[in-house]
Amino acid sequence: MAQPEAPGYYSGYGEPPQPPEQKRQVGLIVAAIVSVVVLIMIAAGVAAAVYVSNRGSSEDRVVADPTSSSPAATDTGETTTDSTAPTSGNGVIGKPVRQGDLLITVTGKPRCGVQSIGSGYSAQENQKGQYCLIDLKFENTGAKAVKPTDFGTKLVDENGGETSVDWGSYRANPDNQLPLFENIYPKKTATGVIAFDLPKDQTPATLLMNPVGDYDDEIKISLK
């Protein structure tokens, strides 16, 4: 008759006893914890690498930005004005006005109270009371010759009256020549005088011109 084996005793016959269930569960828990720790470490490493990469790219962009240290790029709220730069449409004495390739400048204040223009047999007397003379300079900044016209050139007095340029203006120029309205070649300048016959009690206020523009491209130059 077989005797029962004592607890914990293995006789060597048959299958070995199975490990306790509790030890197996402990092993699984430990393995899971180790896996989680490893995953956390990997994620932290990836995040650190991305941060360093982005930081380096941002620094590169800042260094490459030329406006970050350029004084010219700083907006101080101040503007500068070049008194010799040409304007369009409206102008003043001594400052060029651009129309197409032509720069137009009234070089001085009107000279009024003149009784006649020209000399000798070609002298011409005023009909209304006085001549007002306007000194002009035309400069061709383009690549082709231009021939300005005096058509539409008028002087507006302080009361709004308009007087067209006098047809005998050429007499107010040396040798009776008025090069302002002849061919002006590229990079060349022409100077001359135009005359207006005004009543004695009127004072020039504005010069209207359209030497090389379209019909509605009239420019205005203040004579005050």
Automatic annotation (TrEMBL):
Keyword Transmembrane helix listed: yes
Positions of transmembrane segments: 26-52
Name this polypeptide is given: DUF4352 domain-containing protein
Biased composition, class Low complexity, residue ranges: 70-89
Record keyword Transmembrane helix present: yes
One Pfam entry name: DUF4352
Keywords tagged on the record: Membrane, Signal, Transmembrane, Transmembrane helix
Coiled-coil stretches noted in the UniProt entry, renumbered to this chain: none
Location of the region described as Disordered in the Swiss-Prot/TrEMBL record: 1-21, 57-95
Ranges of residues in domain DUF4352: 93-210
